[in-house]
Amino acid sequence: MTSQLSIVVVEQDADRAYEIVAALKNIGMVTINVVSERSGLAAKIKDFNPDVVLIDVSDPSRDMLEELTIASDPMSRPVAMFVDNDSRGLAKAAIEAGVSAYVVDGLSPKRLQPVLDAAIARFNMFGRLRKELEQSKRALEERKVIDRAKGLLMKARSIDEEAAYSLLRRKAMDEGRKVAEVAQALVTAADLLS
Amino acid sequence: MTRLAIGYVPLLDAAPLIIAQEMGFAEEEGLALSLHPAPSWSSVRDMLSFGTVDAAHMLSPVPIASAVGLGGSTVPLSVVSVLSINGTVVGVSNAFADKMRAAGHDFGFNDATAAGNALIAAAQGRLRIGVPFPFSMHSELLIYWLSALGLPAPQNVDIRTVPPSSMADALRSGEIDAFCVGEPWGSLTVEEGVGTLLLPGSAIWSCSPEKVLAMRTGWAEENPIISGKLIRALVRAGRWMVEPSSHTVTSEVLARPQFLNLPGELLDRGLTGRLMISAQGDQRSVPSFIEFHDGAATFPWRSQAEWIGLQLARRTGLDRAQAVRLARPVFRSDIYRNALAESGMDVPGASSRVEGALSVPTPVASALGRLTLQPNQFFDRRIFDPDLPD
After folding, report:
1. Which residues of chain B lie closer than 8 angstroms to A60, CB-CB?
2. How far is CA A120 from CA A34, A37, A167, B115, B348, in A?
3. Residue B53 gets which letter from DSSP?
4. pLDDT of A73 strictly over 60
């Protein structure tokens, strides 16, 4: 990791917070902020805009964090949570569900590094998946517009599909634009004229 | 004896679960319930989704939010029974209460239009209101209420998530002006001298499904016998609780350290509908402040699910028709009906109804022919007909 990792620790118990901070400092390359009060939690986290939030799963203010995640973007920020035991595989399931990391056995310093690794890897993976999804959605939209534009050209000029497409492509190349943009312009114009 | 693990959040309306176990209704069905208190609604939902518990006490909109693609759950959840109708209060900070009194509001506790207009008038900037969870009947009631009074919410209001146990602190520190929360946490703000109660949730919608019994859909369908036993045990617990002679025992059981760990006197207020609305000792009596049984209170109407789906879609910009379609099957009137068949308890003949259309108790067609629905009205007298969505 090249840049500094920023972490917010939500922990009301001062001793425990100190322990977590000490452990995180050993990892190096991190900026740590501790939030010990429940009031204004969501606003504070928003201000810090951290890469990772660590919160004890037994803390009721977890619901405030949930609000923040929903408000911004469900996958915009990894949240690692500590749970006291994992007798039924909660950690695995939680990770699958999109919570970036659940840590078992409460907090033990030596577990922090893998937690953060897991949280970030998870976060990046979801980020990639989302980007891919967005891109494929857009590609699909573009293809629909191009199909409509081709149809319009075929009808207006009595040409076949291939000729219509090459017409669109030539126009796009001439004007230094994307085929989808040219197609969109044509479709819009046709809508206005009809 | 079948052991069942159940998650809940310590609130007055977790009573059916606690009473079913403590008063032997679960045992009569051959069930031993192990009740797991959870600190937050997201953790109850996660406990259920990931199989740590078999069933859970849940805010009625949570399974619907999941079904329409909002919030964190990935596993389909079903509502197999409603646990309580109403039971929430809207309150304001003492500073707001003073301002509203000075402007002539009488804190009559039954007129949602007057109370809402007084609240809106008292707000100088954006109104800041605390609710326990983004997807909750609390949020839905507030948004419905304020929007109908000409303050479109949530766009013009700050609705913030504040854990119920922190509501008094949030008022004291000036972080919020008002709140909507389940009992006894509203009464606690009065007891601590930081809040004044403005309205019961029932003044906004007299028949709103507040908490539900949720299960993973797959689990409920694979275990119809066990889920049926649980539903019956809870319905019987509810029927017992609404007897006036049961109130004291109910509040004493809930008050125990392992459950709510609060004075029984505080719990009595919500159970009996006799609320103290201010630290000066003003009392208001609210008939059916919380309902656990009468009027088919526990029946999961498909139309309740559709109403919630529509409200969620309205405020988040989802496609309304699709949200209603996805919401409808989440409330499993079929599972509930099967569970109560031949139990000697009555079930409505229909699975859906027009919400908001009953101004007086009304007898309806039912399996045993002795069912009367309770009044079901929105404060603005609008109705929600699932067959005629707007």
Report:
1. 39-40, 163-166
2. 19, 25, 47, 48, 51
3. S
4. no
Chain A residue numbers touching B46 (CB-CB < 8 A): 90, 94, 97, 99
Q: How does DSSP classify residue B319?
A: -
Question: Is residue A85 pLDDT above 70, yes or no?
Answer: no
Q: Cβ-count burial of B86 within 10 angstroms (0-12 exposed, 13-18 middle, 19+ buried)?
A: buried
Model confidence pTM above 0.90: no
Q: How far is B294 from chain A (nearest CA, A)?
A: 32
Name the one residue in this structure whose structure tokens are 């399974």: B63
HSE-up of residue B242 (Cα within 13 Å, Cβ side): 20
Compute φ and ψ for A167, nearest 5 degrees: -60, -45
On whether ipTM exceeds 0.85, the answer is no
Long-range contacts formed by A121-125: CB under 8 A, 24+ apart = A122/A78, A122/A95, A123/A51, A123/A52, A123/A75, A123/A77, A123/A78
- Closest CA relative to residue B206, chosen from B284, B287, B269, B152: B287
Q: Give residue-wise pLDDT tens across range B290-322.
A: 999 999 999 999 999 999 999 999 988 889 999
Q: By the CB < 8 Å criterion, does B316 face chain A?
A: no
Please give the Cα distance from B23 to B10 (Å, whole number).
Answer: 18
Q: Is B366 on the interface with A (CB under 8 A)?
A: no
d(CA B158, CA B129): 6
Q: Does any CB of chain A come closer than 8 Å to the CB of residue B42? A: yes
CA distance B131 to B75: 25
Which of these, B75, B322, B336, B71, lies nearest to B217 by C-alpha position? B75
* E strand segments, A57-93: 79-82
**Does residue A84 surpass a pLDDT of 70?**
no
DSSP for residue A13: -
Please give the Cα distance from B44 to B63 (Å, whole number): 12
Query: What single-letter DSSP state applies at residue A179?
Result: H
At residue B87's C-alpha, the angle toward residues B198 and B322, to 5°, is 100
Closest in B52, B70, B173 to A90, CB measured: B52
Q: Tokens for A78? A: 């990894």
